[in-house]
Amino acid sequence: MVSLVLILVASLFFTGIVIRTKSLASGRKGSGIFQPMKDIFKQFRKGSVYSSTTSFIFQIAPSFYFASVLMAILAIPLGKYPGLISFQGDFVLFAYLLAFGKFFMIISALDTGSSFEGMGASRESLFSMLVEPAFFIVMGSFALLTGETSFHEIFSTLHYGSNISYLLGGLATFVFIMIAMIENSRMPIDDPKTHLELTMVHEAMILDNSGFDLGLILHTTNMKFAMYGAIISNFFIGDLASMYTIPIFFAVQIGFAITVGLIESFMACFRMGHNPQFIFILTSVSLLIFFGVLLLLERFV
Amino acid sequence: MTDILLIMFAMTLLYMSIANRLLTYIRILVFQGFLLFGVTFLELSHINVTNLVLILLETVVFKALAVPLFLNRVIKHNGITRVAEPFLPNFVSLIIITLIIVITIVLSNSIKDINLDKTFFVVALSTLFTGLYIISTRRKIITHVMGYLVIENGVFILSLAVGNEMPMLVNLGIMLDIFASVLILGVFFNKIGDVLNDPDVNQLRNLKD
Amino acid sequence: MISLFLPGAILISVLLYFNKSKIVNYTLVVFYALFLLTFAVYQSFHLNSIELGYFKSDGLGILLLLTLSAVTIPALFHGYRYIATHDESKKSRGLFFAAMTMLITAIGAAYLSNHIAVTWIFVEITTLCASVLIYHHRTTAALEGVWKYVFICAISITFVFIGILFLSLSLKQAGVEDLSFDALEKNYAQLNPFWLKFAFLFIFTGFTAKLGLVPMYTAGIDAKDKAPAPAGALFSSVLMNLGFVGIYRFYAIVARTEILPWANTIILIAAFLSIFVATVYMTRIKNIKRMFAYSSIEHMGLVMLGLAAGGIGVYAAILHIVLHSFVKPSLFFQFNQVYRVYQSKSIYDVGNYFKYNKAGAIALLLGFISCTAMPPSGLFVSEFMIFQSLFESHHLIILFVVLLLLTMIIWGFGSNIFKLLFTPPISIDETKIPKISAWESASQYILLAIAVYLAYNPPAQFVHLTKDAVNLLPQ
Amino acid sequence: MKTLIELFNLTAIATIVALPFLKVKGKGIVTLIAICLQVALVSIISIKVFSGTPIDYSYLGSYITGAIPVRVDYLSSWFILTISFTFLTGAVYGLHYMKRYIDQSANISLHASAYILTFTSLINLCIVQNGLVFLVIWEIMALSSFIIIIFEHYKKETLKAGINFLIQSHVSILFLTLAFMWVKIKTGTFDFSGITTYTSTEPALIGVGLFILFFLGFAIKAGFVPFHTWLPLAHPAAPAHISGVMSGVIIKIGIFGILRVLLLLKTNFVPIGYFILILSVITGVYGVMLAIIQHNLKKLLAYHSIENIGIIGIGIGLGCLGLGYNNQLLIVLGFSGALLHTLNHSLFKSLLFYSSGNVYQLTHTLDIESLGGLIKKMPKTAIFFLIGSLAICGLPPFNGFISEFLIYLGLFKSLSSVDFSLTVLMMFAILGLVLIGGLALICFTKAFSIVFLGESRHISMDKVENEKPASTLSFYAIVMLIMAIGVVPMLFLKVLALPVGQFAANISIDTAFEYSEIASTASMVGIYSAVFILLVVFVFLIRKMVTKNRPVSIANTWGCGYNGSSKKMQYTASSFIRTYRKLASSFLDIDKHKKEAKGIFPKVVHQETHPYDKIERWLIDKPIYNLRQLLSRFTFLQNGNVQSYILYGFIFIALVILVPEIIEKIKFLINFLNQL
Hints:
- The complex is a heterotetramer of chains A (about 300), B (about 210), C (about 475) and D (about 675).
- Chain A is an all-alpha fold.
- In chain A, about 70% of the residues lie in helices and about 0% in strands.
- Chain A has 11 helices and 1 strand.
- The longest helix of chain A has 30 residues.
- The relative contact order of chain A is 0.18.
- With about 210 residues, chain B is mainly α.
- The interface between B and C is large, with 37 and 44 residues.
C-alpha cells in the first residue's frame, strides 16, 4: 500500500526531473518539473483522431497497457512493507503483467497498418524478449541468495555482508537501471525526442494515438519509471525502519531520474543494429551476478 | 575300365569347350550318352535286371538318341544359325575347363572318405561346372539347354557313384533327366522358336527391375 | 485317405482338361474344392498316421494342408472370375483349371510326404503345373517368365538332387538305405557330418527357388508377375510354403547333429540377404504385382530368421508362414480387380482406386496394413516373436538392421499403395471403368480376418498343431 | 464400470458399421451424437474414479496376449477428460468445417469413422495395461489418425505428409515394441506391472535404459526435438478440426505414455530428470524459434505445439528430479504444472487451430503474408484467436499463465538446492522458459496482427464473405474453460492432487501439505487475475466515461506526409521478424531469394524466404538420401539375365564352402606370424 502511493507520487514528477536535468545540462533553465504532468492532463482533456484502418483493438490497448502497469506496481514492496500483491513467485506475475501490456501496445501499433509503427512494434517485441532473461536471472539470483521467492521476502531479507555482495548489489542496480531504460525506450536504446525511423521504438508505436489514450500511454511511462525506481530503491532499503525508508525511496527516485537525464544529455543513441547485442549484455552480466551469488554461498568449489 | 570311360568323358568336356558348331555339341552329347551307357553297364552289374535294363535304355535311347535328335530337329525347324556364339574365345574356355578339372581333382583330393569313388566324383563335379560354364558363356538359348543336359550327365555320374546301394536314386536321376528335358525341350522350346525367330538370350531380358 | 485323394484329384484335373462344357467345368472345380477340404479335415483327425509308406500327416503337414484348402477356395473363385472377365476359349479354360487343381494337389501331397525323394518328385510336378499357369496368356513376356522359371527351377531341383546324393553318401557308413525322414531322424547319429553339410547346403539352395529366398528367388518374381493373379496368389503363398516344408523337414534332421550352428549361420545369411534384396526393390519398384512378389521375399526372409534364431522363433516362423499365406493371396486377389479397373500394373497409370471401388480399396488398405505387419494385423504377432527370438539369441545388430530395412519397405510399399488408393490418376477414361461389386472383395476380408483371429486368439487345436510342427525339431 | 467401458467401445463399432449406409447429411450428425454418447460414458467413468474408486479388472486374454488388465487410475482419468473435451469440441467444429466437402460422401464416412476410431483408441490407450494390446491399440490410433489427416488426399503434399507421419509413428512403435519385448523376455508377461517388478530387482542403470527406450517411442509421438519433424508437415495437411485435435490431444498421448512409464518404473529418477529437462528446454526454445519464421499459419501453430511439449517436458523433468531427490515440493510443482499445461495447451491450441480453420475457409489461404485486416470480416474469430494467443503466451489472466507459473515456481524453489549442477541446470531451465515466453510473444503478436489487423495485403477483402455464427459455436466452451482455469485454478488443482499424489505415493512419500500450500498460492494468483480483469475493465470504463463527449474524428493513418494508400507499405510478417531472423540466422535454415532494386526507376523487385528445419535436413533427409543411394547400388541383381540368376546359386554355394576354408587359412597364417 505504502509503495503504491509512493510510486504514484514519484511518477508525477519523475519525468519532470529528467527533463529538467537535461535542460540544465544543456545550459537552459527548462520548465518546471510538473510540466509533463500538465501536458498529460492536457491530453486527457483533448478529443481524439482514429485511423480508418484501426479496429477496436487500437482503442482498448492503451487502457489495457495502463491497467497492466498499475497492476504490476501493486506487486512492488517497500522495505518491510509488502505490496498489495505478495505471494511466492509474485515477480513472475509482475513480469508477465508487463508483457501483457506490451502485447497490446504492439498489436495496437500494427492495427494502424502504418508503415512506421510496425517498425517500432517489431523492435519493441524483440527488445522486451531480449531483456526479460536479465530480469529473471537477477531475481533468480536474489532468490538463491535469500532462499525466498517473493519480492517482499527477497528484499526484506536482503542484506549485504561481504564486499562481493556490495558488488552484486551494484551490478544489480546497473542491470535494473538499464532494464528501465529499455522498457521505457530511452537513451541509449532509443531517443524519444526524434522521430527518425532509425531510432524509433516506443515513440513510433504511438504515432497514431491521440487525446486521452496518448495521455494514458505517457503517464504509464512515468509510472513505469517510478516503478523501476522503487525496485532499485529496494536494493538499498532492506529491512530498515520506516523513518529511513521513505527518504531513501525518494532519494533513489530522484537520483535515478537525474542519472537518466545525465545519460540522455551526455550519451549518443546506439545504432539500432547494435542494440540487441547491448541488451543481451545485460543477460550476461546478470549471469555473472548469478555466479557471484553461487560464490557467495560457497556452492561451487 | 570304368575309369577309362570316365576319363574319356572328361575329354569330351574339353572338346566341348572348343567346339564351334551346334552340331558338334549334339554329337558330343550322343557320345556322352554312350559313355554313360558303358559306365552304367560296368558299374551297376549287380542290381536287379529290370531296373538295370531300364537305366540302360534311358542312357542309350533317351540320352544318346532321342534328345540329340530332338535338338537337331529344333535347330533345323527354327533355322538357328549353326554356330554357337560364345562370349569368350575358345582358347580361353579351354583353359578354364582344364582349370575346372584340375581344381576339382585337387578339391576331391582333400576329401578323406573311403565310401567315395574319387574318379566318379571328379568327373561328375567337373561335368557340372562345365555345364554351368557353357550355360553362362554361350549366347543361344539352345546352348543353355545343352549346358543343362551336360549338367544332367554330371549328376547322373554322381548318382552312379552311389547307385549300387541305392538304385532308387539313379531312377530319380533319370526322372529328373526326363522331366527336365521333356519340359524344357518338349513343352515349349518350340514355342520359343515360334515366338522369337532367332532365340537369343538378349531377347529374354525384358523382365527385370 | 491320400490313396483316395491323389487318384481322385488327378482324375478331376484330367477331366477338367478334356471337358468343354462350362457347367461341368465349374461343378468339377467346386467338387474339387470340397474334396480337398474334406481330405484336409479327415487327415487332421488322423494325426501322425503313415500312409502308403511315404506319406505322414504330421502337425506341419496338416497345418499347411488346412491353410492350402482354405486358400484354395477363394483362389478357385477368383480364378473363375478371372476366366469370366477374360472370355477365354474352352481349351485354355480347361487347361487353366486342370493345371491349377493339379498344382494344388501336388502341393498338398508334398506337404504330407515323409520321404525326401517323394517331396522332390512333387516339387518337380509343381514346377510343371506352374509353368502351364504362367504361360496362360501366350505372350512373349509370359513366355520369357515361364522360360526363366522353368530353367531356374530345373537347376534348383538338380541342386536338391545333388543334395540327396550327398545325403546318401553320408548315409553309407550308417548302412541304412531308407531316405524317409523318420529313418534319417532315427539314426542321425551315424550320419557323416562332412557329407551332411554338403547335402544340407545343396538341398537348401535348391529349395530356395520355391521358398523365394536368396540366392534362387529370382525367377519366382517373374512367375508371380506373369501368372494370372489367382495363380500368383498360390505361388506367393502355398507354393512358397512347400519350399519351407522341404527345408524345414531336412533342417529337423540337421538340427540333431553337430553341424546345427553352421546350418543356422547359412540360413541367417540367406534370410538377411533376402530381406535386404526385398528392401532394395520395394523402395523403387513401380510394378504393383512385382512389389507384392518382393514383399513375399521379405516375409520368407523373416520366417527363416526366426527359424535360424531358434527358441520361440521356430514357433513364430511356422505361425508367420501360415498367416502370410492368408494375407498375401488377399492382396493378389484384390489386384485382380485393380487390373480390371486400370488395365495396367504400373503405378504410374493407376490412382484414386478408393473412388472406383470402395470395398476393394478398403480391402487393399487392410491388406497393406496386414502385409507390413502393423499391429492390428496378424503378422505383427509372429514378427514380434521373431524379433523376440533374435533378441534372445543376441543377434541384436541383425535385429536393428532388419527393423531399419522393414521401415524402408513400409515406406516404399506405403507410398505405392497410397498412390494407388488416393492420388488421382493422370489420364483415365472413367466411362470405361467397370462396376465391381463389393462381394468380390468379401473373400479378402475373410482371409485377413482369419489371419488376425489366428494370430491374437488362436484356437487350441491350432496351437497344438503348431506345437506339434515345432516338436519336429529337438527340444 | 466394466460394462460402461464395453458400451463405450461398442458404440464406436456400431457407429463405424452404420456410417457407410447413411445419407451424407446424417453422417456428421450421427458422428457427433456418437461422440457425445462416448464422452458422456467416459466422463462418468473418470468422475467415478476421481471420487475415489479406481477401476481394476482383467480380461482373460488368449494364448498370445495373456491376461489383459484394464486399470483406470487418476492419471488415466485426467487424460481421458482432457481428450474427451477436445474431441467433443473438435466434433462440433468439424461438423461445420466439413460442410463444404459435402459432395465427397464416401470420403466423409471414412473420415468420420476414423475420427471415432481415433478417439476410442486414445481412450483405450489410457486404460489398457497389457503391452501387446497396448501396441495394437497404439497402431490403430496411429493408422486412424493417418486416415483423418489425409482427408484431402487428392492433394499431393497432403498424402506426402501423411505418409511421413505414418512412417515416423511406425518408428515410434518400433521403439515401444523393443521396450515391451525387453520386459516380456525378462519377466514373461505383457502386464505393465511386469515393468515394476523387473526394474525394482535390477540395477538402476537397467531402469534408465528401459525408460530411454520407452521415451524414444513416446517422444516421437509427442514431438520432442529432434523427433518432431513429422509434426509441422502433418498439421497443415490435415483439416482444421483434425489439426486442433491432433495438436491438442493426439500428441499428448505421448506425454501420457511417458508419465505412465514413470509411474511404473522403480529406478533412479535423477538422470532421467536431467535428461528430460535438458531435452525439453531445447525442444521448447527450438520449437518457438522455428515457429516465428513460418509463413503458413498452421505450420506456425504446429511449431508452437512443439514448444508447448517442451514446457510440459520441463514440468515432467522437474517432477522426476523431485522423485529422485525426494523433494515433495518439486514433485508437486513439476507434475501438477505438466499435467495442467497438458490440459491448457489442448484448450488454447485447439481454439487457435479452429479459428485458423475459419480463416482458411473464408480466405482459402493460410499464407500469413497475403492476409490482413480480417478482424473486420470475422470479429468473433479474431477475438477468439486473440484470447488463444494471449493464453498460449502464458499471459495472465488466462490459463497458460497458471501452469507456467507452477513450473516457474518449481524452478525458483529448486534453485536453492545444495547441488551445484542442479542449481545451474535450473537457471538454464529458467533462461529457456523466459526465452520461450519472449519469443512466443513476438510470434503471436506477429501472427495475430498480420492476419487480423491492418489492411489486407494481397487477397481482396470483398471476396471474403462474413463468418458464420455456427463456425464459432464450440469456441465459447473452450474459452469458458480457459478463463475458469485462469481465474479459479484451485478447482482444477483439487482434482490434480490425485494424479500428482500417485507419483509421490510411488516413492511412498506424502505431498498433501506441500500441495495445499501450492494450491493456495495458485488460488491467490487466480484471485489476482480476477482483480486484474476488474482493473482492466474499470480503467476502460473510466476512459469511456471521460471520452464520452469528446470530439472524435476519423482520418487516414499518419503517413509522414504521404496520404496515398499505404497497403503495400504495411509491415509484413517477414519484415516484422527481420531483426530476429538476422540474430538467429545461425540456428535457422532459410533459403532466401532476393532481387535488389537497381537504377532510378527500378523494376518490380521481390524477396521470398522459405524456412526449413535444420534438424530435419541433417537428421532425416541426409541419412535417408544416403541409405537410398546405398540401396540403389544393388539394383543390378534382378537384371533379367538367366545366366546370372544361375550364377547366384553357384556363387552362394561356392562362398559357403570356400569362405570358412579361407578364414581357416588366414587364421593359420596369423598364428604362424605371431609365432615368428
